[in-house]
Structures are given as C-alpha cells and as structure tokens.
Write a structure and sequence with these properties.
With 85 residues, this protein is mainly α. 66% of the residues lie in helices and 0% in strands.
C-alpha cells in the first residue's frame, strides 16, 4: 500500500498536466478528473508499470482484510445484504 501512496503525487501531477488542472485545485471537478481517467490515459502515464505493480501487490492484502472484516462484522461490503462470504 505504501508504494501506491508514494506514487500519488506523481499521478496527481500527471493528471494536472494532462487535463490542465490547477495543482492546488481541490474542487469536485478537479478531483474527479484525477480519479476517473480513461484506460488509455492511465496507460500513457510514464510510471504506469510501477503503478500497476503497486496496485497488484496491494490487491491481495486488501481483499484479505475485506474478508476478515466480513467475518468479524457479519457484513460483506463487496456484496451488501448477503452477509459474510
């Protein structure tokens, strides 16, 4: 997860440049532009391979945590209303 956090400033700078956003802007439109990006735009980020590797490394532990929380709480956030998996 740390690698994703460390990549965030570079990702934000890339989005700011790509979409001509003010780096200081935190309005909903600017934030959405940084969060919801087309696949082609994501893949053209110079650090895409590094970001993909960081995401892949974090996906398993996050899924494990989600399952542990579902067991503990009795609620599966991935499938609301269905209880723990």
């Amino acid at each position: 997860m740390t690698a994703l956090v460390e990549l965030r400033p570079d990702w934000a700078a890339y989005c700011n440049e790509t979409f001509s956003l003010d780096p200081e802007a935190s309005d909903p439109s600017s934030e959405m532009s940084r969060l919801w990006v087309s696949g082609d735009t994501v893949r053209s980020w110079p650090r895409f391979s590094e970001g993909k590797a960081a995401l892949d490394a974090a996906t398993g532990p996050v899924a494990d945590l989600r399952n542990e929380l579902a067991d503990f709480c009795g609620v599966n956030l991935a499938r609301p209303g269905l209880g723990a998996a």
